[in-house]
Amino acid sequence: MGxxxxxxxxxTSRTMRAHxxxxxxxxxxxxxxxxxxxxxxxxxxxLRLNPRHKIPVLQHGSLVLTESxxxxxxxxxxxxxxxxxxxxxxxxxxALSEWCYFIMSELDAASLYMVRRHxxxxxxxxxxxxxxxxxxxxxxxxxxxxxxxxGTASPYLFGTQLSTADILLMTCLEWALAEKVTLPxxxxxxxxxxxxxxxxxxxxxxxxxx
Length: 210
Ligand SMILES: N[C@@H](CCC(=O)N[C@@H](CS)C(=O)NCC(=O)O)C(=O)O
What we know:
Blueprint: E1 5-8, H1 13-25, E2 30-32, H2 44-49, E3 57-60, E4 63-66, H3 68-78, H4 90-118, H5 122-125, H6 129-151, H7 164-178, H8 185-195, H9 198-207
Parallel strand pairs: 1-2
Antiparallel strand pairs: 1-3, 3-4
Helix pairs in contact: 1-3, 1-7, 1-9, 4-6, 4-7, 6-8
Bound molecules: glutathione.
Residues 12, 14, 36-37, 41, 53-56, 67-68 line the site of glutathione (GSH).
């Protein structure tokens, strides 16, 4: 019998998060290797799952979930694993959520996606070199404020277990490097620690196969 966990999407930082979490948790899943702007997110079958034609999309039985941060949060709760941080009290959960919302809103949406839209995707969203430079500076300022905490992560943001925040942060750091943003030395060391995880390397190979 096939797995009832199905992931749609490969090839981007956002899809990487979902593959990585699934592999960390050891979930048996199937995936559709569709990419953005290939026409594959415009098929009738896919649009019925996500009318916003975005990847990743997770199906688990009858559940259909979009948004990479929500997907990895759902997976960490649904398939608990001692390697993954899963706080049960409200204060600790709020502290984890604070990191996740910060990374998704300030680093991903307001900075890196802005750079992507107006540089690599300029044919769709328009060329805007001033906005691109401002978004890179905004990213660096935000990261700088969090660097003492990232630098002292031991080895991860919330201690010895990997968290959803680490997955979101790591994928943004890789994305930033791809956009030629320089990262502080201590952040680079954090990145090396996280990159050593077997599931991370397996997810890289799967998500960026072509
Ligand atoms: N906030 C969403 C962003 C998803 C997103 O923008 N996905 C892009 C690729 S990174 C996409 O699917 N684009 C395809 C399209 O617009 O047709 C998430 O984190 O999952």
